[in-house]
């Protein structure tokens, strides 16, 4: 059964990426409306969740303010975090995404046209330029989604946060909204290929204001955001790091 479900998912991923990606490109080129293309992205994500047999329980939607630009910060266990956020977060936003994704034919071009911001963590200068660009967009009214861990967790356990995305939020002066994703690791762990149908839970936390903060406050803000996410994870997913160890590891991360 898992082989059938996996084959269905990858077939849908391929077909939906090509068809909806080309449609999104055409919409942006003709209408200049990237918000319409974002709605196609939501459709793409929901189709792939359906094909994989994955459902998402969403909590905390009442905490969203679609009219206010914010930085959404989520933990990262699996590819399915992307599908869950894009498909189930009912607001307009753009991603701060690793540059490798922008090299994928059709998908990468569509991402650029829609307004996603690439970040190359292998090049410190370019990475900071990307963070500055994302920060500017938030100040101008665009919500941005980041994964502060920088990459997917190999074991599903919450990792130390890198500083870059947190600095982005401080520089924007807008709130950080924590998003906790629980259960996606079981569906498709990093490095795995077979999909395991199931349920994941997405919890939207209370916004954390950054307007009065400076870059010197970044370590304390890292702890606040990390703990806001951790409280909505299982004990295993949250890990055993206490606040002091978490802060020390976060401060040692470069971006």
From TrEMBL:
EC number assigned by the record: 2.3.1.51
Transmembrane feature ranges: 7-30
Pathway: Phospholipid metabolism; CDP-diacylglycerol biosynthesis; CDP-diacylglycerol from sn-glycerol 3-phosphate: step 2/3; Lipid metabolism
GO biological process, one term: phosphatidic acid biosynthetic process
Domain Phospholipid/glycerol acyltransferase residues, every copy: 70-184
GO cellular component: membrane
A family per Pfam: Acyltransferase
PANTHER family on file: 1-ACYL-SN-GLYCEROL-3-PHOSPHATE ACYLTRANSFERASE (PTHR10434), PHOSPHOLIPID_GLYCEROL ACYLTRANSFERASE DOMAIN-CONTAINING PROTEIN (PTHR10434:SF66)
SMART domains documented for this protein: PlsC
Organism name: Desulfosoma caldarium
Family recorded in the similarity comment: Belongs to the 1-acyl-sn-glycerol-3-phosphate acyltransferase family.
Comment block on domains: The HXXXXD motif is essential for acyltransferase activity and may constitute the binding site for the phosphate moiety of the glycerol-3-phosphate.
GO MF term set: 1-acylglycerol-3-phosphate O-acyltransferase activity
Enzyme class: transferase
Domain of life: Bacteria
UniProt-listed CDD domains: LPLAT_AGPAT-like
Keyword set includes Lipid biosynthesis: yes
Name this protein carries in UniProt: 1-acyl-sn-glycerol-3-phosphate acyltransferase
Enzymatic reactions: a 1-acyl-sn-glycero-3-phosphate + an acyl-CoA = a 1,2-diacyl-sn-glycero-3-phosphate + CoA
Keywords associated with the record: Acyltransferase, Lipid biosynthesis, Lipid metabolism, Membrane, Phospholipid biosynthesis, Phospholipid metabolism, Transferase, Transmembrane, Transmembrane helix
